[in-house]
# Entry
Amino acid sequence: MGILVNDKDVVVPGEILAEGMDFVPSGDVFRDGEKLVSGRWGLVSVSGRILKLIPLSGKYVPKRNDLVIGTIENVGISGWRIDIGCAFSASLLLRDATQEFIERGADLSKFYDVGDYVMCQIVKTSGPKIIDVSMKGPGLRKLGPGKLLKVAPAKVPRIIGKQGSMISMIKEMTDCKISVGQNGIIWLVGEDPKKELTAVDAINLIERESHISGLTDKVKELLEKRK
Amino acid sequence: MNILKKHLYNTFDKGFREDGRKFDETREIFIEYGISSRSAEGSARVKIGETEVVAGVKFGIGSPFPDKPGEGSIVVNAELLPLASPDYDSGPPSIDSIEISRVVDRAIRESKCINMKSLCVKSGESVWLIFIDIYPINNSGNIFDAAALASLAALKDAKFPSLKDGVVDYKSRTKKGIGIVDYPISCTVRKIGSHLFVDPNVNEDLYSDARLTASFTSKNMLCSLQKGGNVSVTSDELFTMLELAKKTAQNYRKVFGK
# Structure
């Protein structure tokens, strides 16, 4: 009886983390009778009596106010459908698309066409199928030429760092413009392709070793070595 | 133009490639022989960077073509499995898979590296057929070169099965190989804008304007060509591409051996 794992242990789905009623499940941990079972592959986080998981993989689950990068997959008569990398596409309605006045019957592909990449914000998620996004807000825009990286959405908080410290460090040391979507899509562009490559390597390093401590120092070391 | 393609163009215009390689630089090549020796008479795995292709060789007995009664034949088939790339679908062969198998087939056939007459069992009645099956396991670009190298490696590894009274006994294998004397090495050169380069990664593969696959014998004799992509190449570019392909094929040959 009691807890069967340690803090920061890597567990797989179905693994029993604790027995008895002493602990409370949270996040991706669920209760099965007397047992607390892991629902995903991730790191155990024990805080007091609460047992939760920090997932190491998984698809993006949309949340309100998340900034995401998506690609326009369809232009309709009253808006656009955007693929944001989750099970269902998001819709961008005319009223949320632009500050400009759009005439009735205007060709919407002039604003955003199929294949364009946009940085947008989720404004509404009602039920699993309805996801509304907006393009009105600071930093929300159609993305220009750049490189796109796809990382596991679970690793995005590590890439951004505490109050954006990690991503700011990468931006500063590589002179790259980087936009990180909560859905795991990262857009980056730099004047110097070599520095751009360094930024890509740094992001890949974070994704690969996000669960290992001392990551900030490792990333800093890599960036300084390649400067 | 797609932003990724535009960015790729910009990077090339600055004289760089996405992954920092030079235009004539290939990724690391790794060849493993006999990966499935129980089920195939010859097999090999080729890795070019993260691209991975396996190829298998099976022997069968069949009837010769009426116009070539004393010659065996080869049949090349490539299957683009969905496990290799999200762009590949299961189902009937796609145009891409047919093209890969045709390009590999042409290099082997036109270089005349296999003596088809040596595959004859009884003239006009039965001959050996060599089936070469190509399966990409991971597509990280340059599937053409990886498929061609894997096929040659599988042919190099292949040993004839026993033949008793016209029936093939796949359980017992002879020590006789196909006896290829000169392996034709293929190399694909890509064009983006006015830039020519070899061994593309997956983005370069996707957004290149044109490609040219050429195969060369060990004496640098050109034995097959295939041009792909929607953009034309000038005659000067064609000769530069051939030179680049020849140089890269020599590097491939160093890894592949003679």
Chain B touches chain A at residues 2-4, 6-7, 10-11, 14, 16-20 (CB under 8 Å). The radius of gyration of chain B is 19 Å.
